Every structure is written in C-alpha cells, then in structure tokens.
C-alpha cells in the first residue's frame, strides 16, 4: 500500500496539469486526431465502428487507427489498473507499479523495489514517448514488467496465479496494439526461457519445467483469443501493407516481404551513441536547434549566432530524435555492481537480452547482425526504427541494478569478497567519465557524418576562414553541452560510490544507504525527464480536441455537398505525412506508418511524380486558367482518384479540378496483363477513363459476362459513409463499372439489388465490377468477418480469463489464510 501511495503522489505531482484538465501537446496525438476524425465522427453519430476510413491515402482499414473493441472485457481490467487516471498519468503509474511487482516477485526488498520502480519509470525514453504522443507504445512498455513477473511467478511454483496473471497482462498488452514492443518482450521471454530450460534439464527438472511452461502457453492462448479481433484484423491487413509480400519485381530484388532494410534502419543508434545510457547528452540530446536555447549561444557573437542557430544540438547519425535513451548514472553503476555480485543464470539471461538489444539498436551501423535478423528471424523485418530495441536494455539494466543492490544489503560480506573487481569497475567508469568531462573530443567529433561532408564543402568556398570559425562555434557549443552532462554524471557516480563506501566501512546502516540511493536516483533521473516533458508541454484541452483550424481554402471545399471526393494539399511540407488535410477532407496523402503496399507503390511510381509536377507548375509565373487545366489534365492518377480540389494557398480559394473523373463510371474496354509490373506500367495514361488494366487472374469474371459499352449508361453515387457506398446504375447493356475506391478484399462486399456479387481489382489498386443491364442499386459494405466473429470469441475468452483471475486470487487468499492459522486450529477444522 505504501508503494502505491508513493507512486500515486509522484504521478500526481509530475502530471499535475493533466489533473487540472490540460493535455500534453503531443505531435503524434495531433496526427492521430487528424487521421481519426472521420472515424470518431461516425462513431459519435451512429454509436458504431466504421472499421474503414477514406480520409487518408485514398482509404484504408481503421483498425490500425482507432477501433473500440468493446467485446474484450480485459479493457475494464486495464482501466481499473490505471485507476481511470488521464492516459499519460495512468501509464506512468503503471510503469512504477508493474516494475515494483516484478522486483517483489524477484525477491527484492520492498523499499528498494519502490526506488527501482521509480528509476524504471523515469528512464528518459519512457518519458519522451509520452511527450511526443507514442501512447500505445508507452502503455505496451508499462505491461512488459508484470507479464515477465507472471512468468517468473509461475516458474517459482505459484502456477495458477502466475499463469493467470501472465494471461491477463498479456491480453491487455495485445489489446493495446503495439506489436513491436510485444515482439521485443517476446525476445526477452525466449532468452529467459532458453536459460531456464537449460538449468531445468541440468537439475533434472524438465518435467516440472514442461508443466509450468504449458500453463503459461495455455494462458497466452487465452490472451490471444481475448484479443482475437484486433490480432485477426491486423494479420489480414499486415499482408496487404508495406510489411507484407512485395509485389513489384524491382522491389523483389531487395526482399520478398517486410520493410525495406534501408527504411527500417533509418533510426539506428550509433555504436558510440550507446553511451547515452550513462551520459544523456553524449550526442547532444534532441534535434532541437541550437537557437532554441539562448543559454547555449550566450558566448557567441550576434553575427555568428545567426549562422549557427539553425543547426541541431544533436550530432548523432539518426534522422532525428526527441531525446536520448538514458537509464541514469546511479542505475548504470548499480548495474555494473550487480553483474559482479549476483550469482546464477538469471543475470546472464537478462544480460544477454541487454547486449542483444544494444547491438540490434545499432542497425545500419552493425549490418552483419541486422542482416541476419532481417533474413532469418521471423517477423523482425516487419518493424522499423531499430533503435527502439533499446527498451530491452532499459528494462534489463534496472533489474540487474536493484537485484545486485538487494544482494549487497542482504549479504554485506560480498563487498569484501568482490572488493577488487568492484574497485576496478568503479575506477574504470569514473576515469572514463572524467576524461569525457575534460577532453571529450577523444571520443567524439561533435559533428554527424552528414555534417562532416557538408562542412567540408562549405570550407571550399572563398569564405573559408569565416566558415571555419562558424564550424568551431557549433562544435564548441556542442562540446559544452556534453561536458556539462559528463560532469553531472561524474558527480552522481562519485556520490553513489561514496554511499557504498560508507556502507562498506559500516559508517551508515542499510536503511541510510537505501535512502541515499533513493535521493540520488530521484535527483538524477527526474530532472533529465523534465528536460523533455515539463509544464511548457501542456495546453488547454480544447486545443487538442480541435488541433487544426480550417483555412479559407478548407472552408470553401467544405461547402461542396458532394459526399465523396479527394483533396490534394500542396501547402503542407510532405503530402504523405500530413494529418491536417485528413482532418477536414478525404486526402490523397495522410499520416500513418502502415499504408497499403499497393497504394505506397502508387505513391512511389505515379502519384509523387504528379505531385512534384504540380508543385513546379504552381510555382511558375504567368499562370493562366488554361495552363492550370492543361497541367491537371495530365495528372492521370490524381484524376482517377477523383481529386476534385487542389490547395495551393490556404488563404485563397482552392483550385477546382474539372478533370477529376468522378466516383464511378462505365469504361469502354479492358486490357488484361500478366504481371503486377505490367499493371503499374500501363495505368495512368490519357486512356485511363476509357480502358482499365486488369490482372489476368480476374479474367474468369468476364467469361460469363459479355460487356458492351453504352455511352448513355450512368452510375451515380447516392449515399456515402466510411463503411457503406450506394450507387444507382442505369444502362441498356451489360457494362463494366470502374469504382474510384481502394480495393481491399478482407471485408468489402459488393451487392447488386441486395444480392452479393463479385467485384475485381482494376488499375492496380481500384475496384471494378460488371453491372447488368437495366436499373439497379449497387452497394459496397465493409463487413469483415474478422471483426464480427472475432468479437464473439473475444467476449467469451475475456470473461473466462477474468473468472480465472478471480478464482486464482481466492485460491491464493485461502492458501495464505491457512498458512497464518495456528496448527491446532487447522487440525480442528
């Protein structure tokens, strides 16, 4: 109870603005609000889930954006565990509570476990992701510890409670929906399991291990069934995304499935950048500009400031970063101590996971291991941002740190036993940090690889001496940033070492040591966390509820009563990472990391070229309506996507595109092709509205139907919602209708006059279907079986798991109660 009160107090004070009705202005949450607007509006209006949205990338399933899985009753357990606090506050509380539970299961002193939990919760990356808006990632990380604790509890002999808790926490973890973090957790569990298996075989206890493992597996299967809707829909969708099978031949040269390795390793931690675990600003911290902090440039002359102010503080080699992965100087030193004093296989299991995660985080900087994992380790190539593997290190380091300190407190003689090793380890870390404080250029150059090339080029100009001074100023400011943090780390190392020495020489009692470590951990980690999440990050809730204000151009487009058309916004920095347009319209672009592969192929091979072409056109002088219309008539893919408006100036009316082809139309003919490459090559020409390109695998659809073009025929969209489209057709012949909607076979069903009918993929990513003669009603309904069947399975499984949890808790309560009874009372009963 004391631990929970401490955690609640810290959570309240750290996130006090949240409890006052404010919100964190999270970049990713702003993006989420943009891409989920159509989904949320539909939910509020109908009380149902649309499961599909057309507001980004032409259209995509909603389950990777925003879907409420109400059948899964583990959501109720999750809310209870978060104490129904504001989301980020609840996550911080779970960081603490989950890790505390793990340390208690591992046998750590409760007071030490409180300190360890606080140290874990304030690991810098865990706070940074709350600031930027990676809420599902943060929550998934929060459940890593209790899941691992449940598994350990099972192997310690408390099979029922341990396996049920594992199942409950794993079910919540899967419900959260961040498979990358869950994958890293599984790596930890697999490594732990292999070590445990070896030790069990060695001790002749394989049968016991097998039984305990089977209960864990059964529990995990129940967890999977409880979250089957999300998992099933995600599995269906993943096969159609960039993480699924590669379609185009030129891409197959690099891989058969999964992400492109260059894309996945864009965010790779530098090998020496790993030192941020010990010194947070070893590479400068975040990619904020030097000019963002006036204190950094106070010694630079005003004219020199102008030149260097836009360079980032960060000089690592990642594309960008919101901050470093820092576990704390105190925790890092305790980790080294733990590796020296702890005995047994468990520390080596955790250490193996830590080292593996560090090496995997290097990504493109350590390609032999990265290539191996991408090629041979199942599902590893589905994930990007390999630097994220460091969550394993952040998880494992404090485990070893506080297990080691706990061991020293229980057995002070270990200090004498390992005195030499401890002194050498302490001396090496302190000496390294001292050198880093005094002459950091021994270890780093204060410029990234990209900057090195850039600096070399500007030094070739006539202003060589002037630029040399500017570069020296940049490097000097960065050097000061590193030295300040290195000195800070050095102080914490010496203070921690001092407390340990006082305890060794019996100058202080163990509880004074614990109190001292608590203070050092707090003063070390919390101020670093406050660098990235503080009062300046909070805004009034209304600003987050409506993060975008419509421009004049947006307002003009919103006057159009046509229910379904698309918009291209050329005023945003990147059309294909823009949430703002999706907030108001059905966008050609959008903001999401898991696009349909075929749409991504379309972007890379067709749409991006047309976007670039239009940008050049609208940047040119002496534009006339005729020139604009001529340019738009040549953007065949955008027209096929029914891009009705182009925003070129937010303060002016949008450009109306008279060449947009509409929602649906009848075509004159079909051209069959044998390969997907032929599909891509043939689409997007002046014949786009007359002839459709169809892969030959759909040819059988035409055997029973002889189509004949009727120029008087028409097909008109009558009703639109994200998951439902109704058209009216009128034609005197059997015709082929082209539907300007994204093809997705895992849920979209077509009906003619209420009778389910076939439709095909056309022009690489669109829909087409044969329409009989006469007057008909054509409907497209998004009704994925994975959702409707999955929800029934989820309801039953999650309720069963909750009943098992209640039963396990009653069983544990009775067992504890019986242990506490006097012997004669037990016999009498």
Structure in words:
- With 829 residues, the protein is an alpha+beta fold.
- Among the domains are: 259-317 and 330-507, no CATH class; 552-656, no CATH class; 664-783, Immunoglobulin-like (Sandwich), CATH 2.60.40.
- A hairpin with a 7-residue loop joins strand 6 and strand 7 (655-656).
- The chain starts with a helix and ends with a helix.
Percentage of residues assigned to helices: 55-70%
Radius of gyration: 30 Å
Task: Give me the side-by-side strand order of the main sheet.
Answer: 11-12-18-14-15
Work out the helix count.
34
Strand content: 5-15%
In the predicted model, the low-confidence regions spanning at least 5 consecutive residues are 824-829
Taken from the alpha-carbon principal axes, the silhouette is globular
Number of strands: 18
The rounded distance between the terminal residues' Cα atoms is 32 Å
The whole-number mean of residue pLDDT values reads 93
The helix-and-strand class reads alpha+beta
Describe the largest sheet. 5 strands, antiparallel
What features would you highlight for this structure?
34 helices, 829 residues, disordered C terminus, globular, Immunoglobulin-like, 18 strands, four-stranded antiparallel sheet, five-stranded antiparallel sheet, alpha+beta
